Amino acid sequence: MNNCISIKSYRGKMVLYIFLQFLKAGLLLLPPYCYLLFLNQVVTHKRIGWLWAVAGLYVAVFAAKALVSVLLKAVYNRIFPAMVLEAKKKVLEKYSELDMEALSGYTAGELMERLHRDTEKAAVYWERKLELWVAAVNVPVMTGILLYLNWILAVVSFLLLPLSFYVTRRLKAKSNVQYQRRREILGKYNDFMIHNLFFWKEVKTNCQEERQRRQFEGLWKELGDSFLKSHMFWFLNRTFLAFKDVFLTKMGLYLLGGILVIRGNATVPALLVFMEYYGDFVNRLLQISDILIQRGEQEASVKRLGEILELCSPERPWGVEHFESVELRDVAFSYGEGQGEILQHCNLKICRGETVAIRGESGCGKSTLIRLLAGGIVPGKGEILWNGIPMEQISRGDLYARAGFLMQESMLFNLTIRENLLFGRADAGEEELRAACVRANIMEFIQSLEKGFDTVIGENGMKLSGGQKQRLLIARLFLQDTELIVFDEATSALDYQNESEILNLLLQEETAGKTLIMVTHRGTSVARCSRVISWQELSPS
Fold first, then answer.
1. For the residues of 153-170, what is the DSSP string, one character each?
2. Is 280:28 a contact under the CB 8 Å cutoff?
3. pLDDT greater than 50 at residue 1
4. 383/374 Cα distance (integer angstroms)
């Protein structure tokens, strides 16, 4: 777990978070006490002067609880979203360091699941662990309060606790099995979606839409069934506990409490307040039960992330101080046995300062060429040289610090706009973020949002339009400030005016000396480049 998230950097905030959790839990114990004072002093003994004291105490407790809740949320926002961001960065860095052979045992959907959901579950693992510690202390405290109020009622209420934990344990085991099955199906579903995203043109060309639709419906049905079953165990556990603790036990306690009041072993105020505390006690047990039920899937996510992060990265001894050139020498590539070569005898050299446009028909292999340059795939034949050095010998971190790639499938995460931008440069300040967004012509949109840079944009930017997503990705690339910029249809969702403005920024004097490679269909983009290469020149049949 420590390989995924460095807990030491959050230790101080975690201590404060736990302290505030305990403080909030302590404040939650006071309202029933105020109720007891009200019943004893005001209702029973008719001491009206106590009314104002009790009301004042209740209002003070309410105000303190509201303040602690606000502080708790603020501290939470400084811990767990940052954990998610850190985990995603580490997984992305590991992916970029590893050779394709090291990842060949994982499907694209599985790798995506580890990057997206497993990183988020890893942060939830720590969030729930802290909550479990707090609940584990609160339960004995509330047990003592219940015993103090009436030990007979307390003992009776505790008799069924072993049964509760037994049922929870059994349901947890079954829930973990269903979760694992659901995750496997989700990996297949993601593979299917990724394949159709990349090869939709081939699907349409070969009239495979109906076949793909049936496959999609089958996967979606399996996914829905597994999701329903995994949540059914959580529902069964909650239903059992609610029926036992809230219905049967409470009814029995009221009946027994009534008998104790009649016999003089309890008072009505003490009985009513006991039931208030008992309700809180049950809620704490339900919270612990939920945490234990869901813990299996979180631990599995942590284990999967550790598995990826522990893969040995290859040694790449060379660095890239400045970008000078990139060259493909007699490169050939195919996506698998039995499939034709997309690239054949491909030769290309691009030098520092050039602005190059690559043109060709849809599906001819232009995006494959860019993925080869980025190291996302490796050539079957030939070699790729950066500054005359074979790509497999160059440090990936060093390479990506000099070359920025904006692919058609570039990802945005279910984080804030600020956190997504910081993937471009982690130490960027507020003014640098604003400057990059102004250059990408998205600053006005961000300012129109209620939370500005702190707006969460959803998985892969689902809350943004296609053009807004592309401008945000371009802003992130500007923030990275690389010497080589590679666009793979990166302005396809922009109108001509926005595209023209961004191209002006890329090609103006302040970016002189930078190198631009652009895959595009638009004549306006091609006309701005100093060199145009057709696909027939690159990969002669």
1. HHHHHHTTHHHHHHHHHH
2. yes
3. no
4. 13
Backbone phi, then psi, for 275, in 5-degree steps? -70, -30
Residue 98: CB atoms within 10 A of its CB come to: 16
Helix H or strand E encompassing 401: helix 396-402
Report the C-alpha gap between 382 and 329 in whole angstroms. 6
**Does the predicted model carry a pTM greater than 0.90?**
no
How far apart are the C-alpha atoms of 195 and 369, rounded to whole Å? 18
Between helices 250-263 and 268-309, what is the axis angle to 10°?
A: 150
Query: What distances in angstroms separate CA 469 from CA 66, 366, 426, 490, 502, one per listed residue?
Result: 37, 22, 20, 10, 14
Those residues with Cβ within 8 angstroms of residue 509's Cβ, 6 or more apart along the chain or in another chain: none
Query: What is the chain's alpha carbon radius of gyration, rounded to the nearest angstrom?
Result: 30
* Residue (of 224, 402, 259) closest to 318 by Cα position: 402
> For residue 351, what are the β-bridge partners?
325
Q: Which residue's entry shows tokens 């479990």?
A: 132
Place of tokens 């967004």: 437
Contact residues for 292 (Cβ-Cβ < 8 A; gap 6+): 168, 169, 172
The 10 Å CB-count burial string (b at 16+, else e) for 267-276 is bebbbebbbb
Three-state secondary structure call for residue 43: helix
Query: Is residue 534 classed as helix, strand or coil in its secondary structure?
Result: strand
Enter the tokens of residue 99.
Answer: 């050779």
Contacts of 35 (CB under 8 A, 6+ apart): 272, 273, 276
pLDDT tens sequence across 477-510: 888 888 888 888 766 656 666 666 666 666 654 4
For residue 23, count CB atoms less than 10 angstroms from its CB and return exposed for 0-12, middle for 13-18, buried for 19 or more. middle
Task: Name the token pair of 214.
Answer: 């049936």
β-pair type (381-386, 325-333): antiparallel
